């Protein structure tokens, strides 16, 4: 799929879309596909403080548990509570309806460490090549 | 979530290229490059088997033939069930045991002829099992042969499995009772072994066709074509695992292993002490007298969280009391279930325990098993 340039991406396959000092975080299409059918999501509480690369929760498919890491430092301002009852949204719309949390960025400079769409696209293309080698 | 790359050459079934063409996600399972799920996904595959039909390539399973004048005595010596009670054309669940009463492997024993048996064994233990069988039947006038590479083994499973297979064979399928088998023509191939067995908790058949790729691909695609009207799905090892877990069927390396005894695993009903001597018998008789210190129970999660293999089980005071052998979201039951070893004191139905999930205790209830039992259908 084509990754959009309206957001940044991590090597652990999270995305973050920033507007002002607020960032919306989710997992990428590549990640949901690698996981398979998602059946459980565990997210932090509103008010929790996260450091960049710190675990913010887990997404579990039938087969696997995957830790989700925060792309940036900040305070959790909103949690997508609908995912608790419909975790399959993560497979259906990982870049849209299935956002995980919103954070208030405490260090926007960290965004500079993340990949843009073209870099992420190349990164996952490499991964896919490895997997079929 | 990325599988580590490996330099060890994985073994492939005759259908490997077919699975890849169909877009299956492949994993290393016991040294075999196997499909874990196809593009439809594990949940759809699981539900297809519960409500319609699914097909699995299980050619990675091993097969050992034991034949010769003393074959029955040899099989009686190396396995715990009573093979003398098998009619020709009948099969049963059994196990190969170490002298300590623990598992070399579990096995389906088929009686092909009076003195000819086919043992179907697990993929990850093929070599170990074969050498163990060969060594332990040495004193008997019979031969143990590794015939695992002779067959492509396909499991056709689900309430519509018989309707589907009936279109491809001249066998009288309704006449094959559960855990019986026959030989008949399938997809034009003569003398194909058709067994009413499986590992899903559902009705179904396992067929053994010649393992060359052309034949294997022909049968695979004809089953998919014939199954289209029943909504057939090709199914991977992911669904195979969740299906067997709902049905509480043991998996080697999880519920059974070289460290777990038959009595602990709750498989005594397949262990026939009255038949006479077999490897592991005296250790099991001793354990029967002294009692077991752990037993396998079914758990259903009461709080949010999925118990996974290896997680600790806690008692109501938070003390570590056991461990999970298999745990998953159950796709048909839509609950989070697990199998676990706990001391017998905690095994009563309705006992509240907890599973430690990432440092948090999540409540779980001891429930009756199997978690799923297929509905009785009108004949």
SSE layout and pairings?
The complex is a heterodimer of chains A (133) and B (379).
Chain A: E1 8-9, E2 14-19, E3 22-27, H1 29-35, E4 38-42, E5 49-50, E6 55-61, E7 65-69, E8 74-79, H2 89-92, E9 101-105, H3 117-132
Antiparallel strand pairs in A: 1-2, 2-3, 3-9, 4-6, 5-8, 6-7, 8-9
Chain B: H1 16-21, E1 25-29, E2 32-37, H2 42-51, E3 54-57, E4 62-67, H3 71-78, E5 91-97, E6 103-113, E7 116-121, H4 126-136, E8 143-146, E9 151-157, H5 161-166, E10 181-186, E11 189-195, E12 204-210, H6 213-227, E13 233-234, H7 237-246, H8 281-290, E14 295-301, E15 312-314, E16 320-330, E17 335-342, E18 352-357, E19 360-367
Parallel strand pairs in B: 3-13
Antiparallel strand pairs in B: 1-2, 3-9, 4-7, 4-8, 5-6, 6-7, 9-12, 10-11, 11-12, 14-17, 14-19, 15-16, 15-18, 16-17, 18-19
Brief summary of the model shown:
The complex is a heterodimer of chains A (133) and B (379). Chain A has 133 residues and is of the alpha+beta class.
């Amino acid at each position: 799929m084509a990754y959009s340039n309206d957001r940044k991406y991590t090597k652990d396959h999270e995305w973050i879309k920033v507007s002002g000092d607020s960032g919306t975080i989710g997992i990428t299409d590549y990640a949901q596909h690698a996981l398979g059918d998602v059946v459980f999501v565990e997210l932090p509480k509103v008010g929790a403080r996260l450091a960049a690369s710190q675990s913010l929760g887990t997404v579990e498919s039938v087969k696997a548990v995957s830790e989700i890491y925060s792309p940036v430092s900040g305070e959790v301002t909103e949690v997508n509570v609908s995912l608790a009852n419909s975790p399959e949204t993560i497979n259906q719309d990982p870049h849209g309806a299935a956002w995980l949390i919103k954070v208030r960025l405490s260090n926007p400079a960290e965004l500079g460490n993340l990949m843009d769409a073209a870099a992420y696209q190349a990164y996952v293309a490499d991964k896919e090549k490895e997997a079929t080698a | 979530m990325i599988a580590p790359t490996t330099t060890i050459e994985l073994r492939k079934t005759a259908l490997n290229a077919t699975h890849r063409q169909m877009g299956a996600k492949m994993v290393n399972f016991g040294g075999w490059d196997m499909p874990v799920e196809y593009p439809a996904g594990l949940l759809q595959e699981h539900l297809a088997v519960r409500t319609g039909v699914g097909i699995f390539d299980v050619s990675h399973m091993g097969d050992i033939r034991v034949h010769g004048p003393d074959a029955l005595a040899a099989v009686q010596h190396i396995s715990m069930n009573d093979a003398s009670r098998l009619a020709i054309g009948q099969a049963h669940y059994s196990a190969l045991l170490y002298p300590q009463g623990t598992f070399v492997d579990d096995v389906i024993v088929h009686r092909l002829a009076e003195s000819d048996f086919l043992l179907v064994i697990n993929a990850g233990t093929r070599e170990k099992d074969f050498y163990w069988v060969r060594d332990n039947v040495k004193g008997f006038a019979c031969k143990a042969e590794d015939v695992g590479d002779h067959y492509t083994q396909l499991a056709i499973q689900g309430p519509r499995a018989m309707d589907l297979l009936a279109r491809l064979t001249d066998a009288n399928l309704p006449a094959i009772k559960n855990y019986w088998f026959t030989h008949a023509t399938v997809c034009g191939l003569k003398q194909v072994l058709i067994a009413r067995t499986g590992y899903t908790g559902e009705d179904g058949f396992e067929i053994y066709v010649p393992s060359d790729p052309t034949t294997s691909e022909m049968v695979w695609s004809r089953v998919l074509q014939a199954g289209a009207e029943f909504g057939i799905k090709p199914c991977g090892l992911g669904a195979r695992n969740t299906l067997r877990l709902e049905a509480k069927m043991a998996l080697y390396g999880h519920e059974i292993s070289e460290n777990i005894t038959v009595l602990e695993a709750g498989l005594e009903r397949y262990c026939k002490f009255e038949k006479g001597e077999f490897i592991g018998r005296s250790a099991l008789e001793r354990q029967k007298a002294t009692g077991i210190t752990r037993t396998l129970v079914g758990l259903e999660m009461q709080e949010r969280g999925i118990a996974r293999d290896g997680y600790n089980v806690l008692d109501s005071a938070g003390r570590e009391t056991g461990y999970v052998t298999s745990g998953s979201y159950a796709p048909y039951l839509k609950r989070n279930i697990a199998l676990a070893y706990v001391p017998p004191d905690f095994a009563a139905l309705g006992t509240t325990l907890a599973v430690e999930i990432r440092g948090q205790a999540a409540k779980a209830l001891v429930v009756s098993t199997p978690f799923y039992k297929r509905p009785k259908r009108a004949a």
